Amino acid sequence: MALLVTLFGVFLGTLGLVGMVRPHRLIRMARSWQTPTGLYAAAALRIALGLLLILVAPNSRFPGVLRILGIVILLSGLATPIVGLGRFHRILEWWANRGPAFQRAWASCAFSVGLFLIYAVSP
Predict the structure, then answer these.
(1) What is the pTM of this model?
(2) How many Cα atoms within 13 Å fall on the side-chain side of residue 116?
(3) How many Cβ atoms from other residues are within 10 Å of residue 78's Cβ?
(4) How far is CA 114 from CA 91, 107, 110, in A?
(5) How open is the CA angle 78-68-16, to the nearest 5 degrees?
(6) pLDDT tens, 2-57?
(7) Less crowded by CB within 10 Å, the N or C end of the chain?
(8) 3-state secondary structure of 1
(9) Helices 63-96, 100-121: inter-axial angle, 10-degree rounding
(10) Overall number of domains in the chain
(11) Is residue 8 within 8 Å of residue 120, measured between CB atoms?
């Protein structure tokens, strides 16, 4: 299970790096999820990651942090279909209209969380 968290950390870190270097590419990738299938796929991915973090937490360097993060991600996955495509679209457009510095700041957060996940589950 730690390997899956590591792989997700690499994926998240890579997305963050892409967003820091080319924010418009990250926005384009996010827009590709603006379909009913994409919305449910995002929800399923969040639910799976949340459960995975909860399960791997006891054997990690930061069990409390990973458990809380897992619960938050799990709940956000459950809420994703409730939020719906319309609100997702409005949130993405709001984020896209904030400018490159704002987008890079958020991307650096994603990069940092990805690195944290890798470190948290590494032996």
Answers:
(1) 0.88
(2) 13
(3) 13
(4) 22, 11, 6
(5) 75
(6) 999 999 999 999 999 999 999 999 999 999 999 999 999 999 999 999 999 999 99
(7) C
(8) coil
(9) 160
(10) 1
(11) no
